User: Fold this.
Amino acid sequence: MPPKHQSLFELNQNIKDQLSQSFPTSYWVVAEISEIRTVRSGHCYLELIEKEDDSDQVKAKARATIWAYTYRMIKPYFETTTKQALTAGLKILIKVSVEFQEVYGFSLNIKDIDPTFTLGDIARRKLEVIKQLEEDGVMDMNKEVELSTVPQTIAVISSPTAAGYEDFVKQLENNPDGYKVHHHLFPATMQGDDAEQSIINSLDRIYQYEHIFDAVALIRGGGSTADLMCFDSYELALNIAQFPLPILTGIGHERDESVADMVAHTRLKTPTAVAEFIIENISSFDGYLMDLQEQFVNNTKQLLNEKKHRLDIAALSIQPQLNKALSQKKQYQSEAAQRLDFITRNYFHKQESFFSHVKESVHYLTKKQVRSGLQKQAFLSTRLKLEVSALMKNQHQKIQLSQRTIELRDPKNIIAKGYSITYKDNKPVKNLNAIKAGDEIQTLTNGGKILSRVEKITPEK
Assistant:
C-alpha cells in the first residue's frame, strides 16, 4: 500500500491556513521595487526585493499585488506627495497582508503606502552620492574647467524630439544680434532606466571630438521627479564632473537641484536659459570689443591733437630762427659792401698821391725830358686807365660773386631748390650722430613741414 499522503491542493490549503493563523493582520514592510507593471484591468503587479547593505546581492524576494480599487487611491496619493511615479528602483514602505493561493502560491497584498518614507530614502541616497563625490575629490572639477570667452561651438546632449531641444535651437539661431553659434546634437535617452547609460555614451562620443567644441549643453524639457532620477546617479555625476569640457545643464526643473546640476560647470533652469547664457557671453565679449574700439579712437584723436600742437609750437620756434639767419646774412652783405667801398677809395687816394708826385717831378725835368715825360705820362695814363678798369671790373665781379654766394646760401633759396632742413628738438641736425632710431624729427621743405619718426640709420660706406 502507498504511504499516507495528501494532494497538492490539500498541502497548499494547509499552508494557506497556517499562514492565515500566523499572520492574521496587516504589516508594514520596507522593500525595493524590482519590477512593476499595470494590466488593462487596473491591477498592479510588483516584484519586491531586499538587498544586502554592503552589496547588491538579493537576500529576499516576493511577489506583490495592488488590486485595482486600491491602486486607484494609492497611485495618485503617492505621486502627488513625492512628485514621482511608482517605478523600479524605489524603496517603499507598504502595508501588506500575507496571501497564499492554492494555484498562484505566496504573495503580498498591498493595502497602503507611506510616501514620506520614499522621499526620505531618495534624499538619503542623493546625500550619499554627493558625499562619495566629495570624498573622490571631483565635486568641483568641471567648474574649474575654463569656459571659452566666446563659446560658439556647442555639443548638445538631448532627445531629438524633445520640445526643450527645439526651444534651445530656436533661441540660438534667432538671437537679436545675429550671432552665429554652431551646435551638433548627440542624441540620448533623457528619461527612464536607460537614460543614465545613454547620456554617458553621448559624453564618450563627444570626448572623441573635444578639440572641436567649446562646451557641452545637457538639456531636456522638464518632466516629473521620477523622470529626472537618473540625474542624481553617481556614475553620471562622476562622468560630468571629470569631463574635460565645461558642461551647461538645462534639465528643466526649478524646484530641485539634481546632483548633475551640482557638479556641472553652470546650472541653468531650462534649455532656453542655456541658449540665452551662451548668447549673453558672446554679447558681453562683443561689447568689450566695442569699448576697446571706442577707446582706441579716442586715444588716437588725443595723440593726433598733441602732435599737432607740438608741430605748431615747432613752427613758431623755427620762424624767429629763420628771421635771425636772414638778418645776419643781410648784415654780412652790408659790411662787405662797406669794406669794398673803403678799399676802392683807399686805392684811388693812393693813385692820386702817386700822380701828384709824378707831376711835381716833371717840373724838374729838363726841357729835353718834357717830350719823353709827356710820352711816358701818356703811356702811364693809358696803363692806369686799363689797370683801373681791370681792377674795377675785378672788384665788380667779386661783389657780384659775393652777392650770388649770399643768395645761394640763403635758406629760402636752398629750400626752394628741393633741399630741406632737418630739425630735432628745434635744433638743426648737422650729422648722423645727432639722431638715433625712434627719434621724432621735423623736416622743413619748400611746401611746409614734415613730422616723421626715424626707423633706421644707414651711414655712408
Q: What stands out?
A: Residues 271-364 form the longest helix (94 residues). Residues 293-411 form one domain.
